[in-house]
Every structure is written in C-alpha cells, then in structure tokens.
Write a structure and sequence with these properties.
By secondary structure, the chain is an alpha/beta fold. It has a 5-stranded parallel sheet with strand order 2-3-1-4-7. It has a two-stranded antiparallel ribbon with strand order 5-6. It has a domain at 2-108 and 185-215: P-loop containing nucleotide triphosphate hydrolases (Rossmann fold, 3-Layer(aba) Sandwich), CATH 3.40.50.300. The protein has helices spanning 13-24, 31-41, 44-54, 61-74, 88-97, 110-117, 158-180, 199-215, and strands at residues 2-6, 27-30, 79-82, 102-107, 120-122, 129-131, 186-190. The chain binds zinc ion. Zinc ion is lined by residues 123, 125-126, 128, 143, 145-146, 148.
Length: 216
C-alpha cells in the first residue's frame, strides 16, 4: 500500500511521515533523502543532483522517477512516500507504474512556514531533521542518532521558501489535482498548528483504509 504525503516546503511532511511510519509500522521513503544519499555516494548522478539542488531547482525527473521506482520495488508492506511526485508528469509516471492507496495533504500558510523555518536543524551526516520547538534533539545542537553537529540548511531562508512556494503552487499543485481526479481517499491536515495533535486521527484513518483494502 502506498500513501503519498503532500504539503508545501517546510510544512512538516518529513516529521509527520516519520511519526506516522513509527505508529503504523511502515516504511517512510523521503525522496529528499534518496537524492541526498545519492549526493553523499558521490556518484555521477549524485553530482548532477547536487548541482541542481544547489541552484534551488527541482531535480531532473528522469533521475527522481527511476530512484523512486527502484526504491518502491525493493520495499514491501505499507509505504509513506514523502516529497514525490513534485510535478504532474511525475504524478502521471507514478500513477501508471504503481497503485496508490491514499493521499495525506498538509495545508499551511506561507508566512507560518517562514516563521518556523529558522527553527529547523539538520544532521548533515544522516539527514535527520529536528525542530527546536516540535522535535528538539535530546542534547542541544547534537544529532540523537549519530551525535553529529546539527546545522541550519543554507537554503532555509525566507527568500528560498517564497521561491519554493511559487514552485509548489505552479508545479506540485497540478500533480495533486491530477491524482485527485482518480478520487483517491484523502486526509487534509492543517499544518498551522502542531502536527503531533493530528497523528492519532491520521493513524485511525489510515488503519480504516487499510481494512477496506485488505477486505477487497
Ligand atoms: Zn546524525
């Protein structure tokens, strides 16, 4: 079963997906992480991705489509796919290759994201993401997983966020609209408040979808 997690940049998609994956005992696939891992590996593809990310662009579709499909093929059980599809053509690609079970959509205002983004910290070693208010590290400035020093992403600035919101509405919204035309089950979550408050509701909803799918 594949659930897609949609939301503007900085809406908490990663945090929500990782919480849900623990509660539902399923696999969280962050396409951002897949791409970053490729960069860390230093492969030819990774170097291309690095160049595109540094320029604030979306990564070449052929690259992300193949990475996502390969990863989905290797993964069994329920999957939460976060950060993909980002464009309508990716949505068409995904929809033609796999069966999508449902959509979880986070809705949030741009200014809320900008106010929050300054509190995000990442671990450059393993890609763990923290939030000083919602998901603080156990020890200040240090990664819980590996003890590495946490950093602020250089692109976590208001200018970059505004640019990404424009991209989200121009490119990702049509992907969502395309998928919604198939009348997939969908949950809309408000990202304006603490996403943790919604986890129980979403978990219940997904379990009920799973029961429907399993009974078919
Ligand atoms: Zn770490």
């Amino acid at each position: 079963m594949i659930y897609l997690v949609f939301g503007p940049p900085g809406s908490g998609k990663g945090t929500l997906s990782s919480l849900l994956s623990k509660r539902l005992d399923c696999t969280h696939i962050s396409v951002g992480d897949l791409l970053r891992n490729e960069v860390l590996k230093g492969s030819q593809v990774g170097k291309e991705i690095d160049k595109q990310l540094a320029a604030g662009q979306l990564v070449d579709e052929r690259i992300s489509n193949q990475l996502v499909l390969d990863t989905l093929k290797k993964t069994s059980g329920t999957v939460l796919l976060d950060g993909y599809p980002r464009t309508q053509s990716q949505a068409v690609f995904l929809q033609s290759h796999v069966s999508i079970t449902g959509i979880i959509k986070i809705s949030i205002a741009e200014e809320t994201v900008i106010r929050r983004i300054t509190q995000r910290r990442i671990c450059p070693k393993d890609g763990s993401i923290y939030h000083l208010s919602f998901k603080p590290p156990k020890k200040e400035g240090m990664c819980d997983r590996c003890g590495g020093k946490l950093l602020q992403r250089p692109d976590d600035t208001p200018e970059t966020i505004r640019k990404r919101f424009v991209t989200y509405y121009q490119e990702t919204k049509p992907a969502l609209t395309f998928l919604q035309s198939f009348s997939l089950p969908e949950i809309v979550v408000s990202g304006d408040y603490d996403l943790l408050e919604h986890v129980d509701v979403i978990v219940d909803q997904i379990r009920s979808w799973q029961r429907v799918v399993e009974s078919q």
